[in-house]
């Protein structure tokens, strides 16, 4: 069994039983207890579970629908690197808009705790995370999207309208020179669009699998003044096309490049 499939199985077990026993899983999957503990540690580091009792049990910390996304598990390391790189780029910001998604959640984990930073977010997991740290946070409110655990609708848009941000940090289902910034759902696209309009600058955080893709809901065109933070799996030709449009491209794990 591949490691990603093993971790997926662990998440299914936690979702079904609420807690798991390391020794039981080790026997079931025919691996060592140390292997299972490493899997749980990796899932905790990537934000899927929380360990208790010295790692003997684990509890889900996010929606099961997100946890079951094997693609999210496979790209978790890249998203972590992207989040770390993106967080370094906003250290001077005093107000941030932050969208929804697993990459945005990784970004939030790496934000430096400082009381003069205000984060306005559509993401309930991010608001929950930041609420335990020395960072001021505002959650948009409104209708909650079931899979993303994000806020949408008139109330969410009205809350965005009460603020102006230095940087809007948003994920994307697709980013390309041809199609611009796109999302899978209209509700997510609309919140991201308004966040971007009310910000001095825009940062899109997306792993390489999203670069060159076009999803069905348009958010905004791509162009000068925007920053894209991605990873080394992004196609070089697409990155070159984005740079030609004046986009600042940052590749996590590689040297920072500009337009």
Structure notes:
- This protein is of the alpha/beta class and 259 residues long.
- The chain folds into 2 domains: 3-72, Arc Repressor Mutant, subunit A; 75-252, Rossmann fold (3-Layer(aba) Sandwich), CATH 3.40.50.1360.
- The chain has helices at 3-17, 22-29, 33-45, 64-67, 70-74, 76-89, 102-109, 124-130, 153-160, 186-197, 236-244; strands spanning 49-52, 57-60, 95-98, 118-121, 136-139, 143-144, 151-152, 165-170, 174-176, 180-183, 199-205, 217-220, 226-231, 248-252.
- It has a 7-stranded parallel β-sheet, with helices on both faces.
- The longest helix is centred in the first third of the chain and has 15 residues, at 3-17.
Secondary structure topology:
Elements: H1 3-17, H2 22-29, H3 33-45, E1 49-52, E2 57-60, H4 64-67, H5 70-74, H6 76-89, E3 95-98, H7 102-109, E4 118-121, H8 124-130, E5 136-139, E6 143-144, E7 151-152, H9 153-160, E8 165-170, E9 174-176, E10 180-183, H10 186-197, E11 199-205, E12 217-220, E13 226-231, H11 236-244, E14 248-252
Parallel strand pairs: 3-4, 3-8, 4-5, 8-11, 11-13, 13-14
Antiparallel strand pairs: 1-2, 6-7, 9-10, 10-12
Helix pairs in contact: 2-3, 6-7, 7-8, 9-10
């Amino acid at each position: 069994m591949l490691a990603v499939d093993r971790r997926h199985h662990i998440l299914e077990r936690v979702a079904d039983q609420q807690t798991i026993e390391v020794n039981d899983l080790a026997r079931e999957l025919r691996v060592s207890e140390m292997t299972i503990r490493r899997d749980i540690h990796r899932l905790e580091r990537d934000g899927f579970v929380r360990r208790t009792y010295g790692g003997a049990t684990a509890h889900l910390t996010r929606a099961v629908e997100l946890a079951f996304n094997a693609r999210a598990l496979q790209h978790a390391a890249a998203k972590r690197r992207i989040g770390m790189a993106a967080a370094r780029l906003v250290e001077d910001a005093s107000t941030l808009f932050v969208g929804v998604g697993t990459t945005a959640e990784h970004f939030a984990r790496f934000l430096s705790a400082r009381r003069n930073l205000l984060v306005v977010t559509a993401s309930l997991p991010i608001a929950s995370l930041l609420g335990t740290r020395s960072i001021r946070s505002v959650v948009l409110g409104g209708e909650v999207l079931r899979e993303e655990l994000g806020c949408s609708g008139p109330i969410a848009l009205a809350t965005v309208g009460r603020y102006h941000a230095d940087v809007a940090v948003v994920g994307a289902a697709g980013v390309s020179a041809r199609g611009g910034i796109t999302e899978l759902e209209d509700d997510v696209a609309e919140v991201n669009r308004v966040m971007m309009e009310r910000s001095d600058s825009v940062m899109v955080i997306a792993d390489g699998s999203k670069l060159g893709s076009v999803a069905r809901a348009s958010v905004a065109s791509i162009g000068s003044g925007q920053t894209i933070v991605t990873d080394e799996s992004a196609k070089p030709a697409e990155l070159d096309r984005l740079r030609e449009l004046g986009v600042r491209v940052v590749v996590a794990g590689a040297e920072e490049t500009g337009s």
